Amino acid sequence: MLQDKPSHSTPGKPPRNCQFYPQFLTTTPDAMSSSERITVYNLADLKNHSDDALPNYLNSLKFAQSHTLTDVRLALGYSAFLVAGACFLWDYKLGFESTKYYTAAAVVLYSLLNGALTLWIWLKEAGTVYEGTSPSGEKISIATSTKKNDPTYNMKITLTHKNGEKKTLELSKPFAEWFDSQGRFVVIPFQEVLATNIPIIGKLDPKRVKSVSQAYSADVLDALYAESAATGSEAEAIKGASKRRKA
């Protein structure tokens, strides 16, 4: 089950000017939250960490993730690598003169594979970071992007109902909604953004659906962070005591 309050290794309160209390997504009760901090000015890091959190959250809601896009990309990439490797090997073993026609064919094949890989990434994947199917059979595809010097997480969500009808949603939210001022990822606001704005997710996780007027104040978030840190310390103490009893 997804934990709302994963343990945190360092109890304490964040600076008063932080936007959110920091904690990382965990999927098991005993999983430790990371204290890793991301440079808040590095859009690539902010996007990549948010992209990584998407499958963790959706899979915890029993979505069945599809890896087709990744599998095809890897197949094309490895095929191009094998062609290049074979070309090098037969040139090393047999010499260029006796293999020049094979080498020419390999170069053409390598170029085609790399071209196909580039087109696949640009046109087919098009920034897609998640594809999956809900327990009810509805499909979801999420593509993400950022713009230069704009700390906004742009999501394009494609929903496909069981009857084949498609619906596309576009959602843009600032990274500050789920990263604190020190660059630590905050789980609950990130999940609330998804559950509140994407019906298929909100239906599976209604406790994360919030009203438009609901917002986090700095004081409330500080208190939530302190509570999550205290809960983490208590969980670690209980876990340690349990291990001592077993010993």
TrEMBL record:
GO terms for cellular component: signal peptidase complex
GO biological process: protein targeting to ER; signal peptide processing
Chain ranges passing through the membrane: 72-90, 102-123
Membrane topology label: Multi-pass membrane protein
Entry keywords, A to Z: Endoplasmic reticulum, Membrane, Transmembrane, Transmembrane helix
Keyword Transmembrane helix appears in the UniProt entry: yes
Subcellular location: Endoplasmic reticulum membrane
Keyword hit for Signal: no
UniProt superkingdom: Eukaryota
PANTHER family, A to Z: MICROSOMAL SIGNAL PEPTIDASE 25 KDA SUBUNIT, SIGNAL PEPTIDASE COMPLEX SUBUNIT 2
Family: Belongs to the SPCS2 family.
Role, per record: Component of the signal peptidase complex (SPC) which catalyzes the cleavage of N-terminal signal sequences from nascent proteins as they are translocated into the lumen of the endoplasmic reticulum. Enhances the enzymatic activity of SPC and facilitates the interactions between different components of the translocation site.
Protein name stated in the entry: Signal peptidase complex subunit 2
Species assigned in the record: Colletotrichum destructivum
Organism ancestry: Eukaryota, Fungi, Dikarya, Ascomycota, Pezizomycotina
